[in-house]
Amino acid sequence: GSYFAWSQGHRIVKLVPWSQCLNNFLLHGTKNVANSISTRLARQNSDSGQKNKPCEHIIDCGDIVWSLAFGSSVPEKQSRCVNIEWHRFKFGQDQLLLATGLNNGRIKIWDVYTGKLLLNLMDHTEVVRDLTFAPDGSLILVSASRDKTLRVWDLKDDGNMMKVLRGHQNWVYGCAFSPDSSILCSVGASKAVVAAILV
């Protein structure tokens, strides 16, 4: 609830602090609802002890953006990788990431607080239509593509790909995790819905 991301389908993604969105809403929207939300967010921000005020970032992804997803880390959730001694990135408790799915099949992972590019995942051969993070804080990312596959990435293992799921006969449009992160569902062309158990 700390940032809002949007893209008009071009190369640019705008990251805006949610409090700034609420302030704009206060100027143009329903004040009673906005005031209660604003008060709650202010209390959350003061409780979390953030020293730096969140700032807006404009990110150039280098290609047409098709999908966006936020992910955050839970320190207790370890990487599923066996060799966890060496990693380029150590994701902390307050880490917030933005994944962008691009027209060229790439997925770029950004640090929301700094706007810096962290990882460039390159394995899809077509447009990345959808992205979703596992809700358990493990930083497992799933991408759905027009190349008829879903790919499962472990961002705590430097973005290494864990699995390729090939259950669709046509483009894959969307994917979503169950609340406990154990089941992944995807939808594709020809009205196909596929479910997979991720263990």
UniProtKB/TrEMBL annotation:
Alphabetized UniProt keyword annotations: Repeat, Ubl conjugation pathway, WD repeat
GO terms under biological process: protein polyubiquitination
Annotated Pfam families: WD40
The keyword Repeat appears for this protein: yes
Keyword Repeat set for record: yes
Segments annotated as WD repeats: 91-120, 121-163
InterPro entries per UniProt: WD40/YVTN_repeat-like_dom_sf, WD40_repeat_CS, WD40_repeat_dom_sf, WD40_rpt, WSB_SOCS-box_domain
Protein name: WD repeat and SOCS box containing 1
Gene: WSB1
